[in-house]
Amino acid sequence: MTNADIAAAFGHVADLLEYQGESVFRVRAYRNAARTIDALVEPLAAVRAAPGRSLTDLDGIGADLAAKIEGLLDSGRLPLLDELRQRVPAVAFELMRVPGLGPKKAKALIEHLGITSLDELEVACREGRVAGVKGFGDKTQAAILGNVAFAKDPGNSRILWEEADAVVAALLDWMRTCPEARQVEAAGSWRRGRETVGDLDLVIDSESAAAVMDHLERWPDVTAVLQRGDTKMSVRGPRELQIDLRVVPAASFGAALQYFTGSKEHNVKLRSRARDLGLTINEYGAHRLETVPDEEHPARTATVAGRTEAEIYDAVGLPWIPPELREGGNEIDRAAAGLLPVLVELADMRGDLHMHTTATDGEDTLSDMVRAAAGRGLEYIAITDHGQRVTMARGLDRTRLLRQWDEIDRLNEALAAGDGPAIVVLKGIEVDMLERGGLDLPDEVLQRADWVVASLHYGQGQPRERITTRIIEAIENPFVRVIGHPTGRLINRRPPYDVDIEAVIEAAARTGTFLEINANPWRLDLDERHAAAARKAGVKLVISTDAHSTQGLDVMRCGVLQARRGGLEKDDIANTRTLADLRKLMANKRG
Ligand code: DGT
Ligand code: CA
Ligand code: CA
Ligand code: ZN
Fold first, then answer.
1. Which of 205, 198, 200, 174 has its CA nearest to residue 187?
2. Superfamily of domain covering 159-248
């Protein structure tokens, strides 16, 4: 059980307690515990095992919760959760997956309207019955109707790449301790860097499949064996993730890795190219047809490739194609023409231009963030706390912002004098695009900033034309450098706002304004398609973590992955430049 699993279990308990109308204090206790655990870097098992320490040292964890954590660590079970699950109707779980429908609202709908499925909820919205329930109204009804479709899409129940990645890392570690396993790699959508992952696919080179499968079965995180054959097996692992294992001999390892990395569409195109060249490709290798089959004799084939992926691509006259590009678009044609992009890499990133501190809703101080960023090899960062509109995060007004900038000036002087790591801190701000138009801080303040991110957090339900106008207005502000998370979507949680993204891209290109690829694994916004469109229009992208803690700086790799999926190169990303070169690029801004 990882910290994330335990946090998720407590989060469920909080939802279910709330559903049953339990006291707000009890609900809050579980929610706070979930938050504490989720933010904890150290595994709970390590905290528990450390001499002289106790789980109860953690914020909001008393004796009762500590005992429950121990139970989860030992047995993976939380009896309270099983009990609560039985007392809440199954449809409630479905309804609570609709963005904006919490336990209380779900309960009201079930009790007052007798809703038993998402389909029924949709009909009830269409017939106007939801608006009639106390506490709902027309606006809420319209919002629910919009979000039901989202919750019904099975694609929205896949797990985030970053969560899958944590499981993959642990799984690879485990399988690499198997003496009979020679090469161990994860394939599938995880390897292609999809923003969400359905199941994990594992390819292992070994002569003794049975021993490898036994080893997987012994992984403590395996909760069930779903099926087992001679060379393949499926199990259920952490986070309810299915893991498909395929064991092949060394001569087929590259072919199997290529096949199970996919995508299906890419494989179909690759095989059709092979066929045109008189070859066949399957998960065992690339084979040349030596004789034409007739009624008495099957075709004789000779295997020409299979050990490595590069061999497979080479057999059909192609360079190796990075997995992130293997979605069955035009990557095979581009590879054939020698036009594959040289994709941006994490090591290319020199700066991070969106992050928060304890001045607003960040968890760590300015100096913590600076030190952590330097520790990650960054040459410059921008501190971009929220502007005053974001009252929930204690957004900065003019006075507090100017005070923070003074502090940054002093910090930079100290850093330049060699007192601390070699990094430059830009004086930034994340201004909010107001519902009625305009920004939440005046130009007179913004013109003194080194770096201004403009984001839209409020009035996300406004019509397309309003949202688009608000964003373009921000783009046209001479001091705004970049638009933060330009579509506002939260993967699996909230659809994007209704925005004419092409118009936004056009305006960004016209004014020399950057667009963000927000690297937060829930956001990844712009997504790869929009990022590719922006690049094509001549817009430079900025990959930013939007970190709200020092740990949050680690998601840069998720943003880089999304950029790679969009075919972006180092030069397309503004913050791969040195600070001096970034400033030159910034001089192109036309307000
Ligand atoms: P996921 O798990 O839904 O996130 O997506 P994938 O791409 O990992 O899909 P998955 O796990 O069903 O299969 C892994 C790869 O195996 C897939 O990308 C391509 C290959 N594959 C699986 N089934 C087929 C098939 O029927 N035809 C072809 N051409 N390839 C397949
Ligand atoms: Ca998969
Ligand atoms: Ca699979
Ligand atoms: Zn932010």
1. 200
2. Beta Polymerase, domain 2 (3.30.460.10)
pLDDT level of residue 440 (50, 70, 90 thresholds): very high
Percentage, residues of the chain above pLDDT 90: 80
pLDDT per residue as tens digits for the range 490-507: 998 788 999 999 999 999
Contact 440, 431 (CB under 8 A): yes
28, 187 Cβ separation under 8 angstroms: no
Domain 346-586: CATH superfamily is: Metal-dependent hydrolases (3.20.20.140)
Sign of torsion over alpha carbons 173, 174, 180, 184: negative
Q: Looking at this protein, which amino acid is placed at residue 44?
A: L
Tell me the C-alpha distance between 376 and 553, whole Å.
Answer: 8
> Domain 259-336's class?
alpha beta
Q: What integer is the mean pLDDT of 156-167?
A: 90
Give domain limits for the chain: 3-156, 159-248, 259-336, 346-586
Q: Whose CA is nearest to atom 8 of ligand 1?
A: 188
Whole-number Å distance, alpha carbon 343 to ligand 2 midpoint, is: 23
What is the Å distance from ligand 1's center to 198 Cα? 10
CATH architecture of structural domain 3-156: Orthogonal Bundle (1.10)
Q: Which of 191, 264, 321 has the most ligand 1 atoms within 8 A of CB, as the residue to mutate?
A: 264
pLDDT digits (tens, 9 = 90+) for 300-319: 888 999 999 999 999 999 99
CB 454 within 8 A of CB 491: no
